[in-house]
């Protein structure tokens, strides 16, 4: 039977398979090339469909060290903005708008008085002398009035009340003198061109933009949107952020640590910081520094309903620092495994399937710095935030700083204050939550007192924290 073909159609299938493989390859290359040509490094609005771009963003080389700006750019490219949901406006504080929101009602919604006073009709005021008018009615805010006003009459009117068509101007009551049913209005008040009347739609017309897409809603926005007639709005879903803490020395809050053990503070620090940046924290457990425990954790992560995952600890060069190995074994793709930044140089960012993964180092100070400098901004972008925080400002150093080991960009916790018209910054104490991070340039070994230094605010649009 040697040489005879038991499957006569096989050659055709084979040829067809090779051909389709080539067509696919050509198509993939074309798409890839298109993506490269059209890659937008500044895009905050990449959709879930941008996986090709995502693949392209992963470096092919083995150099996984990144400086802070490069890491932020790379993360921006990988961000997949959350899906949208409709929520009542009353619950939307701190949420990010998914669409431009336009006015449903004009502002003001009717012609209104801006003063408590007397409304007069047109055709008066030219006399150049004081005039006395009979008071023919009263209009309170909220009245639906059909009141008619004629020249030579005055109507008592309140701030916010609807002004009848023929009403020409409101004279503030403190400028008038009332005597029973009559009011005397002085010539200068009658001659004043300010009408104290706000025309319907003069502040905002129906369809005017009230709040742009990508805005983190503050109390002021909620008030404005309510005024303009909106009661339900479309926002980006909050990202579910899974996090776990590694360390065989860690015990839970409430237990008395045995010698060598530590209470896991990162767990509670992270839960709060994730909320500060608009995420929903989901604690996934405290994990021992063993290969088996970490492998199991990473294996379970893929099925966990989280949009982003953070770990702490296990990032150093020690024998039991196994996060990167476990991440790779679970099929993770590394974006960087070392940052040109301290604290935080021992950290990793990568993709585990569709999920963005951040391996932060163990020390809580490093967790705080990286959450502010890297992970927090990523969380804001995932929620579709248009303008990124923390903001960078300049502050005046109220003390000199000496850098012991220059050569790497450093984030130093600082405390901001305001004095004599200047924004001042000093170094935060060891256990003092920083209100900013001073950005120490790699080439600086000292800063003088009164020198201006760049600082990144740790405040976010979700709640400013100034000391
Ligand atoms: N030989 C070297 N040693 C270290 C280097 C180095 O370059 N060469 N880098 C140092 C730096 S920088 C860092 S950062 C750490 C990285 O450490 P790990 O990410 O491996 O973290 P651990 O070793 O697990 O913990 C470090 C420290 O933090 C405490 N920790 C950890 N988790 C928690 C938690 N959930 N709550 C409270 N405290 C926690 C832990 O007990 C350790 O004290 O490596 C340096 N070493
Ligand atoms: O990686 Mo360490 O966090 O430089 O502090």
TrEMBL record:
Residues 242-381 form the MoaB/Mog domain. Pathway: Cofactor biosynthesis; molybdopterin biosynthesis. Pfam families: MoCF_biosynth, MoeA_N. GO terms for cellular component: cytosol. Catalyzes the insertion of molybdate into adenylated molybdopterin with the concomitant release of AMP. Belongs to the MoeA family. This is Molybdopterin molybdenumtransferase.
